């Protein structure tokens, strides 16, 4: 949709490129070739009217040619027939004209669906796909969808009660529209979108008269109408069989998987995931963009995109300590999409484009963030070596899996910086830290085991050395024991003689 410019400092998209190409001031959309919803519908109707006029001209030309051919084949009879009374319309003689009139009527009344021929040739209606055997929806999924539908229906009825008489009329029109749409399952995605958008426009116009021009009140009602209608129609209009949305989903998923090696430095993203708050915002942004596929209402899907974008802005602000700019946002959004690889990304973008209340895509933050998501998706599809400041050879090696920028960085072959960058993913950073710790523990364990073996040898040799020293001392200084007479302890006590027996001490010879 918009023309992007890549530079070494990051990916840059002029804000003017996000706006409608007709200069109306609203946001454009890639599915509408850069036009906003309003200008696209005007262009759609203009081309349709031109095609109807061309069909009329062709029908008249064919009629003249067939009349001339009929006149030349019947010769003079034509003149007599021109003056004769006209037969009954059902007469056999008017068979060729009757067939032509029927053909011309069909040309006039058929719904002209050639606008895609003028804008996107690849979106012609494809034949219906056969449902693969065994791929029936899970009963639990069907039950959940039924419960969600019942709850939305109840909420819608409760909301309309506050509007009293207009509420009953709105409910009646919505039910009639859903019944009408249920009989148009064979229509292409563009025709289904046109029916829904026409209903939105007609209902909004009538509500503007009721609410006396209060656009805020009209938007509140239209949000509830969109929620009710699209919840009921979701299964039949999301990724319809007449489109190639599913094929585009698989191609996008395969493309993102092939780009798994793209690093945050290559995209020049201003986010430092080693900061815990930044890492938390990145995880929340990834969760939000993945959660988009679980929503059934276009507005709810837009809400997931908006929340994802706000988390990205928060992560950039924490990293830079200043508010994020638009040039910071788009590369970060591309990085988040590459990390998340959201399921059915193309189908969700197309679903929002076709069936969302157009006012939400034309203005406001929802429209801005959705336009940037479309730009990010288009950038990923066209991403090349120049976009990442790589040589074509490097890009091809990384895409084929023959090399990895992370491996090259560990070998000192990082071409974009003098020193290999530290991993920005906190999980990888923690893993590298643990590996370094394990390597240090291994060397310390080896040194400890060597010291233990040395201590063991010292302990084994120590008793022998002690014994040798003792033997040497004994040999050098032999022990001599002299015998002597043992006397009583109190032998020298002169008072012993005065003691009467048997207290008189007695001395025994040893």
Give an account of the 3D structure.
This protein is mostly helical. The protein contains 18 helices and two strands. The protein has helices at 37-74, 77-83, 95-109, 115-119, 139-161, 165-182, 189-210, 215-237, 245-258, 276-291, 298-320, 326-340, 345-355, 358-362, 364-382, 392-400, 405-410, 426-476, and strands at residues 5-7, 10-12.
Q: What is the CA-atom radius of gyration, in angstroms?
A: 45 Å
Shape: elongated
Taken in chain order, the helices and strands follow as EEHHHHHHHHHHHHHHHHHH
Class by alpha and beta content? mainly alpha
Topology:
Blueprint (H helix, E strand, L loop, with lengths): L4 E3 L2 E3 L24 H38 L2 H7 L11 H15 L5 H5 L19 H23 L3 H18 L6 H22 L4 H23 L7 H14 L17 H16 L6 H23 L5 H15 L4 H11 L2 H5 L1 H19 L9 H9 L4 H6 L15 H51 L34
Antiparallel strand pairs: 1-2
Helix pairs in contact: 1-3, 5-6, 5-8, 6-7, 6-8, 7-8, 9-13, 10-11, 10-12, 11-12, 11-13, 11-15, 12-15
Question: What is this structure, in a nutshell?
Answer:
The chain is 63% helix and 1% strand.
Which tags fit this structure?
single chain; two-stranded antiparallel ribbon; mainly alpha; 2 strands; 510 residues; disordered N terminus; elongated
């Amino acid at each position: 949709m918009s023309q992007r410019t890549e530079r070494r400092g990051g990916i840059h998209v002029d804000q003017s490129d996000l706006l409608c190409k007709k200069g109306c001031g609203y946001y454009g959309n890639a599915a509408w070739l850069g036009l906003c919803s309003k200008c696209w519908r005007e262009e759609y109707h203009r081309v349709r009217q031109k095609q109807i006029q061309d069909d009329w001209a062709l029908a008249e030309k064919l009629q003249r040619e067939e009349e001339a051919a009929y006149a030349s084949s019947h010769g003079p009879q034509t003149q007599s027939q021109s003056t004769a009374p006209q037969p009954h319309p059902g007469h056999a003689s008017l068979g060729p004209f009757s067939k032509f009139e029927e053909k011309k009527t069909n040309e006039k009344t058929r719904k002209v669906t050639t606008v895609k021929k003028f804008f996107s040739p690849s979106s012609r209606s494809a034949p219906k796909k056969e449902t693969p055997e065994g791929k029936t929806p899970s009963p639990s999924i069907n039950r959940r969808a039924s419960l969600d539908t019942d709850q939305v229906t109840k909420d819608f009825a409760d909301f309309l009660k506050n509007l009293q008489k207009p509420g009953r009329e709105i409910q009646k029109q919505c039910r009639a529209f859903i019944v009408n749409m249920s009989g148009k399952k064979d229509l292409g995605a563009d025709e289904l979108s046109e029916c829904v958008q026409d209903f939105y426009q007609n209902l909004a116009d009538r509500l503007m008269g009721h609410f006396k021009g209060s656009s805020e009140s009209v938007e509140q009602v239209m949000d509830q109408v969109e929620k009710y209608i699209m919840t009921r129609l979701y299964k039949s209009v999301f990724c319809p069989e007449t489109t190639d949305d599913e094929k585009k989903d698989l191609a996008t998923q395969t493309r993102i998987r092939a780009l798994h090696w793209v690093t945050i430095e290559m995209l020049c993203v201003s986010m430092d995931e080693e900061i815990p708050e930044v890492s938390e915002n990145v995880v929340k942004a990834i969760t939000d963009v993945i959660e988009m596929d679980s929503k059934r209402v276009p507005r709810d899907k837009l809400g997931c995109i908006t929340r994802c974008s706000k988390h990205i802005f928060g992560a950039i602000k924490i990293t830079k300590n200043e508010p994020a700019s638009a040039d910071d946002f788009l590369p970060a959004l591309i990085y988040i999409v590459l990390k998340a690889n959201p399921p059915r990304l193309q189908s969700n973008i197309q679903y929002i484009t076709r069936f969302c209340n157009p006012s939400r895509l034309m203005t406001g933050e929802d429209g801005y963030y959705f336009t940037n998501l479309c730009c990010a998706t288009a950038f990923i599809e066209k991403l090349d070596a120049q976009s990442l400041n790589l040589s074509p050879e490097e890009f091809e090696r990384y895409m084929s899996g023959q090399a990895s920028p992370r491996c090259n960085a560990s070998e000192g072959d990082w071409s974009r910086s003098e020193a290999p960058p530290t991993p920005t993913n906190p999980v990888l950073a923690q893993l590298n830290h643990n590996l370094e710790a394990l390597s240090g523990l291994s060397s310390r364990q080896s040194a400890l085991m060597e010291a233990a073996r040395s201590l063991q040898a010292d302990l084994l040799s120590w008793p022998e050395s002690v014994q040798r020293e003792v033997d040497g001392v004994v040999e050098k200084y032999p022990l001599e024991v002299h015998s002597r007479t043992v006397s009583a302890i109190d032998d020298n006590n002169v008072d012993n003689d005065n003691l009467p027996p048997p207290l008189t001490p007695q001395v025994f010879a040893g």
